[in-house]
Design brief:
alpha+beta; 12 helices; manganese; cytoplasm; metal ion binding; ligase
Length: about 325
């Protein structure tokens, strides 16, 4: 067995991404057990704090997606409990989880990111949706991509190719959040670059190319086997591959992240990468991108997760 002793995996939660989180937690538990680690899985509910106080784990692996899993709240509670955990600190999570804020930070570091505007739903109510939407199209052009400013798994996100599609896209977005991020859509190759840091500095894993069968990497394409084709490593030129790796590591560093992250990028026809967003609790399901990247790098997922937990335990 591992020297880690008692390891706790947090999975579930009450966000829209609960089912994905449960699948991520199950996968991490499986690979850790195969690596000889004693694993317990718990939900983020009213039993969590008493359980941790009664039997403090040596380290926690957070596989909660969306909401408290990525906005820093659960990590703040873990720090109150003096329990070490894998991943970014609460402050860094709060910055990274808010997509417009994250875009502003990485832009200040010189990274390319599509032009965008973030507006709360009250703005459309107070100023008139038609007038505001028309001005957005005038400024950003078409096509556009609309998504909630916070959250993941492409919930509430949609492509807008015509002006007539934008109102419905906004309604769909506001079903999952009070602020919409409307972004100029960049045509190109969609890739995801995972970053891991086992104590020697952040390192990018091979980029994973994403080719959804319906052209949009939505919730169904992400979590339904067969709806998306993946290429790991991505079919990019050496120069574009290096640029994407550099962008992911720079975003990880600029946002003050720790241990693990995943950056989503679009590479245009000229090979120029554009930062889209970053995830501080990457999915770990059978169709998730970080496990694919680890395999492409020749890394065993269980060994990688165990190493991250061991690093976290030293911080305890």
């Amino acid at each position: 067995m591992s020297d880690l002793g008692h390891v706790l995996i947090l999975a579930g939660g009450l966000s829209y991404e609960r089912e994905v989180s449960i699948r991520s937690g199950r996968r991490v538990a499986e690979v850790l057990r195969a690596a000889g680690v004693d694993v317990e899985t718990r939900d983020a509910d009213s039993t969590l704090v008493p359980a941790v106080l009664a039997d403090p784990p040596d380290a926690v692996f957070v596989t909660l997606h969306g909401g408290a899993g990525e906005d820093g709240a659960i990590r703040s509670v873990l720090e109150l409990l003096d329990v070490p955990y894998v991943g970014a600190t609460p402050d860094a999570c709060r910055v990274a989880f808010d997509k417009p804020t994250a875009k502003a930070v990485v832009r200040s570091w010189g990274l390319n990111t599509p032009d965008s505007v973030a507006l709360p739903k009250e703005t459309f109510h107070d100023l008139g949706a038609a007038a505001v939407l028309a001005r957005i199209i005038d400024r950003l052009g078409l096509p556009l991509f609309v998504k909630p400013s916070r959250g993941g798994s492409a919930l509430g996100a949609s492509m807008v190719r015509t002006a007539e599609e934008l109102p419905a896209a906004m309604v769909g977005c506001f079903a999952y959040g009070d602020t919409a991020l409307i972004e100029r859509y960049v045509e190109g190759i969609e890739v995801s670059v995972s970053v891991v840091d086992l104590g020697d500095g952040p390192v990018a894993l091979p980029p994973v190319e994403i080719v959804p069968d319906r052209g949009v990497y939505d919730y169904a394409a992400r979590y339904t086997a067969g709806h998306t084709e993946f290429f790991a490593p991505a079919r990019l030129s050496p120069e574009a591959t290096e640029a994407c790796a550099g962008m992911a590591v720079a975003a990880h560093t600029a946002l003050g992240l720790r241990d693990i992250s995943r950056t989503d990028i679009i590479v245009d026809a000229a090979g120029k990468p554009y930062f889209l967003e970053v995830n501080v609790a990457p999915g770990m399901t059978e169709t998730s991108l970080l496990p694919m990247a680890a395999e492409a790098a020749g890394r065993d997922l269980g060994t990688l997760c165990k190493g991250l937990l061991e690093l976290a335990a030293t911080r305890g």
